[in-house]
Amino acid sequence: MSRLDQIFVLTGHWLAGWAPAALRPLASAVLAIACIMAVFATCFALTTLAERKLLGRMQNRFGPNRVGPCGLFQPVADGVKMLIKEDIVPFSADKTLHFLAPIVLTVPIWLAFAVLPFGRNMTAIDLDGGILFFFAIGSASELAVFMAGWSSQNKYSVVGAMRAIAQMISYEVPLVLSTVPVLMLAGSLSLNDIVAAQGTYAFGWLARWNVFTPWGLAGLFLFLIAATAESNRSPFDLPEGESEIIAGYLTEYSGFKYALFFLGEYVGLFAGAGLGVTLFLGGWHAPVKGLEWAPSWLWFGVKFAALIFLFIWARATLPRLRLDQLLNFAWRFMVPLSLVNLLVAAAWYWTGAWPFGGAAPIRWVLCAGLFIFPYHWLGRALRGPLPPPRKYSYAE
Amino acid sequence: MLNEIIFLLCASLTLAGAVAAMMLRNLVHCALCAAGAFAGLAALYLQLDAQFVGLAQLLIYVGAIAILIVFTIMLTRGDEVRPGASIASPLWWVGLPVGALVLACLVGAIMASPSLLRLPAGAVHAPVRKIGEALMNRYVMPLQAVGLLLTAALLGAVAIGLREPRDAESKTQ
Amino acid sequence: MNGAGIIKGMIETARNLAGSYHDKERLTTVQYPEETLPPVENARTIPFLVYDGGDAAAGLRCTACTICEKECPPQCIYIVKDMAKKPDYLGKMQLHPKVFDIDIAVCMSCGICVEVCPFDAIKMDQVFELSTDDRFGGLLWGIKQLAKPNEYFQKLHRTEASEIDARREQDRRKTQAAAAAKAAVPAPAANLPPPANKGAAA
């Protein structure tokens, strides 16, 4: 089935063959860009619909089901609504910055898709420092949040922008730190190498995904929390919480600019989920050796959809964190745990050389314990003393 | 040919950003143009195939230092230039001989250096692995010293932040 | 253990998600307009006129006494009497309305007209899908739109309708009995002047 697996690559080569030889690299790059943008823009539309329907079902109600069968044309209706809304710019706003902010937000996030391996031989650009590129580009979009808040010349926008930037900076540290064990054990910054390192099979049938190791599981857990926070998504959506601060830095945006911010948030989520799949869930590899016949891009898609479902599930369940709770959680809980995770990964690496037979379960339990105890103690220490049980006094 | 065009583009972007960072009246605009200049520099590094340096430039300068600058502007609200007043200080003419002196020193040093006489080597391949190995083997002492310095700075920042009284601290509850 | 509460919460939402597909009573959404909530007996929106039998013109209970017109607080009822009398359910000749208009945009659903009607002719309806695009008369309803059969009234307000029907049936029987008693008086006594209590049987 390798033709199906490589169908996008082969189609791309065939199409680029139509261009003159000098422009062939440019043509193939443009094709890759167009394909990625088309796929992920459709994914964005479907995710908004899936999110509303899943949130509804998790809250014991239907999601949108009026527009089209099962509400499938709801994203179209939303898109049309966003396009025809009046674009209001406040009189005292800084017009250049107000215009540029959504653009500066969305462009770096689309750039981040260039290094993700979507399938076998399906990376747009195979950079030597792929992960570094990803994080560098992601951090460039924080300036846009500041631009949005500042240019609106609105107290609440500025406060919302400050909070948003504080949150994004705080959670960048655990985000990067939680991926460092992966880099350590794969020995390379290139995402293709990391995926290739997860391609062998243990016991002959189970894939050696990073998530099947204790440090990988902890790392995925930390990475997903940090990615949720980076993308301003519930339960970390204080910057755009409607009941807190109207819409924070988005208050003065309407119509298509708001749609661009919305798009930027979701596409950032997709990029984070894609990176999570690549680093921890084995990229485009199948979980068991018997299922390798399915195309690699299909496996990527399935895992990606599972992570998106996890994000939506977390949004439906968890309440919003307050700002001080959010920042304390990042600096006092997640950063120490990421450092502990580094030690656990190092321990895993050194115990990998144990020669005796029952090494694997012992290794697993030892390294897992090495993580669970600090997790438990840190949580206890941060929670502080619980208040005494409440005494209710009723009027007689 | 394509290389030259890209170089000219990146260089003019960097220069334009740097000049705008000096010349604009609105302080926030200056800060953002400076961030643009940093991004232009990163593009130049990437064009020279120095991936690690270029991406680190983006990550650190644009992702952290530019944000630090705008935060500082926000929290201190430095004096805006009064409308109508000139953005240049009254002693602007002192900059001319100083700039000429610095240019003369730089040109003299570059012309006199032996690197101009060397034949250009083949494309220098500096993958991240080599940088990592160099940092851990040959340059490990400077790395540790820098780490120590950063830790000291972090501790200082925490100490400054902790000066508020105990009961005003918020607990994670 | 840390995070135990979060896990419990996520299990709960997952249970909601799975249950919403096969457990009909989880989803309490009533998908209007395909489904409607069952009507409540004492709900009320605007008044309607009750008629007995099949013909709205012949069986209309309203006798144009105009008590409701006078008692209506926002004065949304407009009645014009038709001077030709028609017999009611007891056989007595009554007036009836030529024009009976209610401006349902003004009506405030207080139900005072229902309380004061001596003939059980006007009752509260439960229709609420009243929007129209006719700004200049679409919300002024006349007899044709207001008259509804007694069966409809029974469906809406079962207890009240049964009680009213029972009372009217009793009155009808009493009238018929009185009329039969009157007709059963012997023939020679027909020459005598009519008895003094003629008006008591009506």
Approximate helicity band of chain A: 55-70%
Say how many strands of chain A there are: 2
Shape of chain A: globular
Total strand segments of chain C: 6
- Count the DSSP helices of chain C: 7
H/E element order of chain C = HEHHEEHEEHEHH
Integer tally of domains of chain A: 1
Arrangement of strands in the largest sheet of chain C: 4-1-6
Largest sheet of chain A: 2 strands, antiparallel
Produce the secondary structure layout.
The complex is a heterotrimer of chains A (396), B (173) and C (202).
Chain A (H helix, E strand, L loop, with lengths): L1 H4 L1 H10 L7 H35 L15 H11 L10 H17 L18 H11 L1 H10 L3 H32 L4 H7 L3 E2 L3 E2 L6 H17 L11 H4 L10 H25 L15 H22 L5 H29 L7 H25 L13
Antiparallel strand pairs in A: 1-2
Chain B lengths: L1 H22 L3 H21 L3 H26 L18 H18 L15 H10 L2 H22 L12
Chain C lengths: L3 H19 L24 E5 L4 H4 L7 H5 L5 E11 L5 E11 L8 H5 L5 E3 L15 E2 L1 H4 E3 H7 L1 H26 L19
Parallel strand pairs in C: 1-6
Antiparallel strand pairs in C: 1-4, 2-3, 3-5
Helix pairs in contact in C: 6-7
Task: Summarize the structure in short.
The complex is a heterotrimer of chains A (396), B (173) and C (202). By secondary structure, chain A is an all-alpha fold. Chain A contains 15 helices and two strands.
Please give a handful of descriptors for the protein shown:
heterotrimer, A: mainly alpha, 65% helix, C: 202 residues, alpha+beta, Alpha-Beta Plaits, 3-stranded antiparallel sheet, 7 helices
Task: Please provide a written account of the structure.
With 396 residues, chain A is mainly α. Chain A has helices spanning 2-5, 7-16, 24-58, 74-84, 95-111, 130-140, 142-151, 155-186, 191-197, 214-230, 242-245, 256-280, 296-317, 323-351, 359-383; strands spanning 201-202, 206-207. Chain A is built from 15 helices and 2 strands. In chain A, helix 8 (155-186) packs antiparallel against helix 10 (214-230), helix 8 runs parallel beside helix 14 and helix 10 runs antiparallel to helix 12 (256-280). Chain B has 173 residues and is mostly helical. Among the domains of chain B are: 1-77, NADH-ubiquinone/plastoquinone oxidoreductase chain 6, subunit NuoJ (Four Helix Bundle (Hemerythrin (Met), subunit A), Up-down Bundle); 128-157. Chain B is 69% helix and 0% strand. The radius of gyration of chain B is 22 Å and the shape is globular. Chain C is α+β, with helices and mostly antiparallel strands and 202 residues long. Chain C has a domain at 47-176: Alpha-Beta Plaits (2-Layer Sandwich), CATH 3.30.70.3270. Chain C has 7 helices and 6 strands. In chain C, a hairpin with a 5-residue loop joins strand 2 (77-87) and strand 3. In chain C, helix 6 (150-156) crosses helix 7 (158-183). Chain A binds chain B through residues 94, 96-97, 127-129, 132-133, 135-140, 142-143, 146-147, 150, 158, 162, 165, 169, 172, 187-189, 324-325, 328-329, 332-333, 382-384, and chain B through 26, 28-29, 32, 35, 39, 42, 51-52, 55-56, 58-59, 62-64, 66-67, 70-71, 74, 127-129, 170-173.
